[in-house]
Structure formats: C-alpha cells, structure tokens
From TrEMBL:
UniProt-listed Pfam families: IU_nuc_hydro
Residue ranges occupied by any Inosine/uridine-preferring nucleoside hydrolase domain in the UniProt entry: 5-299
GO molecular function: purine nucleosidase activity
Protein name: Nucleoside hydrolase
Species of origin: Modestobacter caceresii
GO terms for biological process, alphabetical: purine nucleoside catabolic process
Any one GO CC term of the record: cytosol
Annotated Gene3D superfamilies: Ribonucleoside hydrolase-like
UniProt feature coiled coil, ranges: none
Keyword field: Glycosidase, Hydrolase
Lineage top rank: taxon: Bacteria
C-alpha cells in the first residue's frame, strides 16, 4: 500500500529535485504540495511548485500556497544567490495549466490529514512556518500526522547560512521551536547527513541523458553546481531536500537516534541554531529522531536511478 505524502516546500533547486524524486517513487502517493516562503518569495515558490509538477506530467497534484513570512520576525534575506532570483537556477520551465488551490495551505493540509484513512507522511523541506501554523490552528489535524520528516538543523556541523544555523531553521526559528517541541513523530534530517551526500557531475549526466525531464532537472541544477564550485571549491552538489525525501519514501534509510532538540530563538549570533543533546538518548515525549548516519553512496544512487526512471517514463 502506497504511503500518502504531502511535501511542504520552498522551491528552490534541491526542492525541485525532491519533488521529482517523490513523483518517481512508487512507495508514496504525493497527494498535496504546500508552499512556504524561504529560498525565494511565496509567489515564486508556488509558481515553481506548479511548474515542476507539470514538468513531470503531474499537474493533477494540488498546490496550496502557505505562509508569506515567518511567524514573528521577518526572514532577514532570501537565497537567490544560491537558487537564482526566481528559485530554479535561471531555468524557465513551461507554465502549468493548473491553478493554485484556492485553500490556504494550512486548511488544505488539515483537511487532507483529517480525511485520510491512512497515516500521512509530511515532508517539510522549507522553513517550518506552515507546520507551526497547523499546530496552532488545527492541532487535531496535526496529531494525525503519521510521520514528519524535516530537512533542517545541524547537530555537529555548524550552520550553512551563519556559523551556527542551517537555513530552514534560521528562516523561522520560532516555528521550528514550536514544531520540535510538539511531540510529533519527527525525523530531523540535518547537515550532519546531507553534507556528506554529494551528487556528482557523473550522476547528473546520467539522468540528463535519460529524457527531457532529466535534462531539465540537470539544467536547474547547474547554478547549484556553479555555486558549489565558486563558494566551496568542490565539484558536485549537496541535494539536502532530496535526502530528506529519500527517508520519507524509504523509512530507515538514515540511522536516527532520539534526541532532545532546542532551537535558539534569541537575537545573537546563535539565532536559529539547533542545540541537539548528544550526551544521551532521550525518552522524552518531545524527543526528535535525529539522523546521524547515512550511506551517502547508496542515497545518491537511489536519487539518480529514480530520476532516470522518471525521465525514461515521462
């Protein structure tokens, strides 16, 4: 039986690959995409979600627009220097014939959760504003989440937007604090496992050659490749969100440990840092399953082979 899946996202280059990976995977049934501010503004993330779904021939999947800004304090800056000003690396995908779902994202998500006969996996791969709003407005719906897989944070690797903070948590620390403290069945896929998982030029070339969808995905990735080369001197790209989706699709892909996680919501240099207590495992009701180990080679092969399959079928 396929697992019902919702992706909450801010496309974003690696978000686009994560959506394509979900569509390529028979283990899950992508029933809804909700969008949020983050890498670029909400109008751009929503349009990008529609276009990525259309690229894969899945304009039937509804897209509902969510939070335009963070819960309390505005996000200081976007990530256009990494993802391009419109979010997809300067690549213009064909427009979708589908319209945005008229429901706010939180309403659409709540209705799906309350109506589903099966537990729903929610993959949150952007700032956690929508999920925090769901907790506040529809707690009875949030309680029905079967599994919440979050791309965010870092236990041991520092940050990628500041010395302390990972981007998604930093973009709305108050929302992250609310979500991690809610007692939902949460898996935290952070920089500890994403940074070692590098998609190489060889892997990109494989799905680029498999068909038009793969070719367009590779084109979207090019700005990511260029940014990694110029900023870090490395060849290949870290596709953070695709690794989180891999764990959502195949539970147990990552080795996780239950930990207590606190988010720094102050206004100093540590704002947005995830403080993960690694001294011991946690039996707390609010413990988060923190991903601490990954078979990076297998994870990259999973992504590449699934994208090749999607490109060949579409």
């Amino acid at each position: 039986m396929r697992t019902p899946l919702v992706i909450d996202t801010d496309p974003g280059i690696d978000d686009a690959l994560a959506v394509l990976l979900a569509l390529a995977s028979p283990e899950v049934d992508l029933q809804l995409v909700t969008t949020v501010h983050g890498n670029v503004g909400l109008a751009e993330t929503t349009e990008n979600a529609l276009r990525v779904l259309h690229l894969a021939g899945r304009s039937d999947v509804p897209v509902a627009a969510g939070a335009r800004t963070s819960l309390v304090f505005p996000q200081p800056r976007r990530a256009g220097h990494v993802h391009g000003e419109a979010g997809l690396g300067g690549v213009v995908l064909p427009p979708s014939p589908a319209a945005v779902d008229p429901r706010p994202a939180v309403v659409a998500l709540a209705e799906l959760l309350l109506a589903s006969e099966q537990p729903v996996t929610v993959a949150a791969i952007g700032p956690l504003t929508n999920i925090a709003l769901l907790l506040g407005v529809y707690p009875e719906a949030a309680a029905r989440i079967g599994r919440l897989v979050v791309m965010g944070g870092s236990a041991t690797r520092g940050g990628n937007v500041t010395a302390a903070a990972e981007f998604n948590v930093w973009a709305d620390p108050e929302a992250a604090a609310a979500v991690f403290g809610a007692g939902l069945p949460t898996v935290l896929v952070g920089l500890d496992v994403t940074l070692p998982t590098v998609l190489t030029a060889e892997g990109i070339a494989r799905f680029a050659a498999a068909g038009p969808v793969g070719d367009r995905a590779a084109a979207v990735l090019q700005q990511y490749v260029d940014h990694a080369r110029s900023s870090y001197g490395v060849e290949g790209v870290v596709v953070h969100d695709a690794l989180a989706l891999t764990e959502a699709i195949v539970p147990g892909t990552l080795t996780t440990v239950p930990r207590d996680v606190v988010v720094d919501t102050g206004h100093g240099a540590g704002r947005g840092q995830t403080l993960v207590d690694r001294r011991t495992t946690s039996s707390s009701a609010t413990a988060v399953a923190v991903a601490e180990d990954v078979d990076s080679e297998a994870a990259v092969e999973f992504l590449v082979s699934r994208l090749c399959g999607l490109a060949e079928r579409t």
